[in-house]
Amino acid sequence: MSALSLRRSLMLGILAAAAVMAAPAAATAQHAYPDRPITLVVPFAAGGPTDTIARIVAPPMAKALGQPVTIENVTGGGGTTGITQASLAEADGYTIMMGHMGTHGAAPALFRALKYDPAKTFDPIGVAAGTPVVIVARKDFPASDLKGFIAALHDSGPAYSQAHAGVGSVSHSAGMLFDSIVNAKPTFVVYRGTGPAVNDLIAGQVDFLTDQIVNVAPHLQAGTIRAYAIATPERSPVLPGVPTTREAGLPEFEVTAWNAVFAPNGLPKEVGAKLVQALDVALDDPPTRDRLLKLGGKVPQGIDRGPAALQKLVESEVARWTPALRAAVDNQ
What is the pTM of this model? Predict the structure, then answer.
């Protein structure tokens, strides 16, 4: 073989080896996260507050990620069915979930056989919105203020029906706490989401519920239901005419629910970082913020909504709700 031929053979060998070595890198580049649609599991029926927040946040997240974020409603178990299902998905960033105060705070107190640990089974992505709780009733309920409402519950007891979205939901947990504080024993009517519950409240099929402001504000503004108090220290700019529970004589009852994005535990760091960034982009988007604020939601800022803040929130909520709800159960 001539020297020229030898050099050519060596060069071809080097090029072939380089091509083989580059192939994995090229394949990795072609499959950089995300390269297909992402599923956002909402553990309640369409139309409820968690679903509403998810549908507001998902489009700007999808824009930031460059892939569709599709909503999958999985109902049952006060939200724990959908969260359990999502927790078993592969930790690759293609299945995430919208949890809340009920699924990641109250559930351990109400479900002794809960199949997940709110503080350990998930990678926290961030808090999407805080949602104050409002005590609402059918528009013709025979009481003019909260004191009269509580008196009516005492007088008639089980004759009045209290709706909620299932054991462990915000409407159930907050409702149990309210009933325990005021020593009321209404008849519970269970729904697969607060959307259907509110529809029946509007129709007068149930008497009252304690629900997140995001779900009830439009109906209160339309006059199809009535509010007795909002369970926050300050009035809401969305419902300025509704007194706080402190103003109405029930300072012990203050509850602000929250909704947050989680993923199955074990996300690759770069995938988790992209999801955190996408949620930040969504919540910093002016139209998205405006929609949440107009519904009465509270959008956390920067570090107050990130993974570390959400992890701390989950741990503190479990510690808060466990004794409160177990005492409420004992009081039933």
Answer: 0.82
